[in-house]
Design a protein that fits this description.
The complex is a heterodimer of chains A (about 300) and B (about 260). Chain A is an alpha/beta fold. Chain A is built from ten helices and 13 strands. In chain A, β6, α6 and β7 form a beta-alpha-beta unit. At the A-B interface, α2 and α3 of A face α1 and α5 of B.
Chain lengths: ~300, ~260
């Protein structure tokens, strides 16, 4: 038996006055999967996440979380969720350990159990040595790891992560990804929002692409790339005025051409062939890069815009 | 209530880090005020033909200062800390992601505010007792009176904070035109009957005046039951109306 989905949404809408943040979306999140909302800032990802987290009532539509109604049973649902908000809500005057202890108390957990739990969680996020330091001087990456540890204090059935690595430097991001990947391997269910396609590719089993409050595509990262892009991409940069896209069509091998302000992308099944052919034609470029398609290309194809402004 | 106790616990844990300084202030403040006003200024006032309340000035001013301090503690705790929990430290947001709801967050914080008032008022009461200004066993009841006054201000100012304050500069107006004038003119230092009409009527409508009158009756042991029940009832109404308003504004502010 597959069991009921962790989250079930049909025609879900969130409006703030005249602004429609989420415009009638349908999705299901299954137990044990890592599910992502990929989209640029303002796509409606955070609003969706706040509705799933039962802190923001939907304007319209159906939403079930853990088989319960978020409006009527918000507290019961939240007792089983772990939430990592986009903006940290740690108390900077308390110590690292105290932040976990007090958060555990919000869930009604016993102090004696929490001591042990906090030690385990701090070990998991590699913050044991900072346990009794105040939160204030911690780096952004450490704070995010602490927030993740804190969100696990109630052994949640599902973890909600809103932009888990936004604002972190590359090394800190990899540390966070590493911990989230470990959780995934242990069978945790994750729901995350991101505007980083590499984050979505690394962490998500399945994702939806959001734009302007709507879901524009759904699938695994690989499926989406296969469906909406070609295997390879040739990125051309030009020192002078770029040529007309039509001049770049080579031997019927080019599927699609996107002109961006700083570069031209040629979508093709055989990038090397196209690059060589263009070179032989004497095309003057400042750089040529052949790479595999990513979710960024999927997003570009679906919306005509890039993910990160 | 069990859920409200969890958010109350957060504020207690936080207070544990600063309680020494806060208790020291609670001892030093009343000593200074009583020495300067009760004894210093009192030596002049006591020679006057129209001594307020026909008691020595230190006996008159001590319960006034006690009540005014309760007001100030509550006002301090219900202004910046609430706004900070909404938008700077965002502790309310942290709580909202857990089983705690708006009501638990609101009640837990109010409970902490009256706890702070209870602690500082108990110290204040001990200090004014040491100055020999308590003339009735009923003086002990000045402590619950201060807590009630603290609840009236805690809820009303929480309503102001959640309903009006966005950047924090709104508190300048609150303190400049609300708290400070009340401190000076609501019977703390001199009877409101010395104020010209209609200022005396305004003073009589302030919750602080009722708190001062109640505390003064109790420490001097000379009030009438009816009048004191009236004062307590008035402060209860403020607490309930302020609480209902504050709760509405909490919802409006935090549920989006």
């Amino acid at each position: 038996m597959a069991g009921s989905p962790l989250v079930h949404a049909r025609g879900l809408v969130k409006e703030f006055g005249r602004l429609v943040a989420v415009d009638g979306i349908d999705f299901d999140v299954q137990r044990g999967e890592a599910f992502g909302f990929l989209g640029p800032n303002g796509a409606g990802k955070t609003s969706t996440m706040r509705m799933v987290g039962c802190i923001s009532p939907p304007t319209a539509g159906t939403l079930r979380v853990l088989d319960l109604d978020p409006v009527a049973d918000g507290a019961r649902i939240r007792a089983k969720l772990g939430v990592v908000p986009q903006q940290d809500t740690l108390d900077s005057e308390l110590t690292v350990r105290e932040n976990i202890l007090i958060y555990g108390r919000y869930f009604g957990l016993a102090r004696a159990d929490l001591r042990e739990k906090a030690a385990q969680l701090l070990d998991f996020v590699q913050l044991s040595e900072r346990a009794d330091d105040p939160v204030e001087p911690l780096s952004g990456g450490m704070k995010r790891r602490l927030t993740i540890a804190r969100s696990l204090v109630n052994d949640p059935q599902v973890l909600l992560l809103d932009e888990p690595t936004t604002g972190l430097d590359p090394q800190a991001r990899h540390l966070v990804w590493d911990r989230l990947f470990r959780l995934k391997q242990q069978g945790a269910s994750l729901i995350l929002t991101t505007h980083y396609m590499d984050e979505a590719e690394q962490l998500c089993d399945r994702l939806v692409v959001m734009d302007n409050g709507k879901i524009v595509a759904e699938g695994s990262p690989l499926e989406l790339i296969r469906r909406y892009s070609t295997r390879e991409v040739v990125e051309l940069r030009f020192a002078d005025r770029p040529p007309e896209p039509a001049e770049l069509r080579v031997d019927g091998l080019v599927d699609r051409i996107e002109s961006l302000p700083d570069r031209i992308l040629i979508y093709t099944e055989d990038g090397d062939h196209v690059a060589t052919a263009l070179h032989e034609r004497g095309l003057e470029t400042s750089s040529v890069l052949v790479r595999r398609s990513t979710l960024e290309d999927v997003f570009l194809h679906l919306t005509g815009r890039s993910l990160v402004d | 209530m069990e859920l409200a106790a969890r958010s109350y616990e957060f504020w207690l844990v936080r207070y544990r880090r600063v309680w020494r300084g806060s208790v020291a202030t609670s001892v030093v403040n009343p000593v200074f005020y009583l020495a300067a006003l009760g004894i210093g200024l009192g030596t002049l006032v006591n020679h006057s033909a129209s001594r307020p309340g026909h008691v020595s000035y230190v006996d008159f001013v001590a319960p006034g200062l006690l009540a005014a301090a309760a007001m100030q503690t509550a006002a301090g705790e219900a202004s910046f800390p609430i706004l900070a929990a909404i938008k700077w430290t965002r502790q309310y947001q942290a709580m909202l992601a857990t089983p705690l709801g708006i009501r638990d967050i609101f009640l837990g914080h109010q409970l902490f505010i009256v706890t702070r008032v209870l602690i500082s008022s108990a110290i204040y009461l001990a200090v004014i007792a040491a100055f020999g200004t308590i003339h009735s066993p009923l003086g002990v009841l000045a402590l619950p009176a201060c807590v009630l006054l603290g609840a009236a201000f805690g809820t009303a100012i929480a309503a102001y904070t959640t309903g009006v304050a966005h950047e924090g500069n709104e508190f300048n107006a609150l303190f400049r035109f609300g708290i400070v004038p009340m401190f000076l003119f609501s019977g703390t230092f001199f009877p409101v009957s010395r104020l010209p009409v209609p200022l005396d009527w305004i003073a009589l409508a302030t919750p602080l005046w009722h708190g001062v009158a109640l505390c003064r009756d109790l420490t001097l042991g000379r009030g009438t039951l009816l009048a004191d029940l009236g004062h307590a009832g008035y402060l209860t109404v403020w607490t309930l109306v302020g609480g209902a308003l504050a709760y509405r504004f909490y919802r409006r502010r935090l549920v989006k």
